[in-house]
Hints:
Layout: H1 2-13, E1 85-89, E2 97-99, E3 106-109, E4 117-119, E5 130-135, E6 140-145, E7 152-156, E8 158-160, E9 165-169, E10 172-180, E11 185-190, E12 205-209, E13 215-219, E14 224-225, E15 236-239, E16 247-250, E17 256-259, E18 270-272, E19 280-285, E20 288-294
Parallel strand pairs: 3-4, 13-14
Antiparallel strand pairs: 1-2, 1-20, 3-5, 5-6, 6-18, 7-17, 7-19, 8-16, 9-10, 9-17, 10-11, 11-12, 13-15, 15-16, 19-20
Amino acid sequence: xxxxxxRYQRRVHGINRVAPQTPVNNFDxxxxxxxxxAPQPSGNDFDAPTNKIIxxAPQPSGNDFDAPTxxxxxxxxxxxxxxxxxxxxxxxxxxxxxxPQNGREIVIGRTKSGDGFLPLGHATVSSRHASVKWSVEKGxxxxxxxxxxxxxxxxxxxxxxxxxxxxxxxxxxxxxIKVDKRNRSIEVRFDEDLMIGRQGFVGRITVIPFGSLxxxxxxxxxxxxxxxxxxxxxxxxxxxxGSANPQLVTVSGQLIWKKLSDQGVPSEEVxxxxxxxxxxMIARFGEVQLSFSFQ
Length: 295
């Protein structure tokens, strides 16, 4: 009877005991599985994932202190090949002096000795006759007459002729007093310094006309005759081409003396040539000669 009653009630009221019942509270509701490895969303900023910082790479910054700085390129300092300048006596014994390449001046004089001085010990040499020093700005050695009485001379094979250029060849000393480019002529005056006893030449002015010529010879038997047994028949040439200044060039192998100073006035600085083809330069201070060579 009981089985018959139970089947009757399920049929009449629609009750199915096998089907799951709906829970009446939230505690019995199924829960969602949480994956602990994945980041979970959050309602606050503290749980938000942060960007990974690479410690080796530079990080952007809002100030100029952390900005990368540019490499500063410094100007290069000019360097010069060191060449020691040595001064020594010509035709007599005496000490040699090296001129330092640091801008320190060496004074050439009559008697004063010590560091920075080269005494020549001759009556024709002034107490402060000339000076030699290294020019840091130009990178060369320079020679300057300091207003001596007897003058400073250098030996050359070629030089430019301008007004008041003083030249000595043999026992004759003459001055080019005027270079007239318009009339193509040169006025030469024989000075009295070395002309004592030669009254025919002392103070004499000679005009050398060029016209269409580009070269005029000087010597014992040349177009411009200089009667000195120390000179060659054809000693030198004056070459004048175009609009440039005339050039005096030796052709006899004997060098020409050029005076640096004039009447006790300090001269301009003269560069001592550093050239492999010129092993040394000869300079004369009064009657004392010095050689300038590079080691």
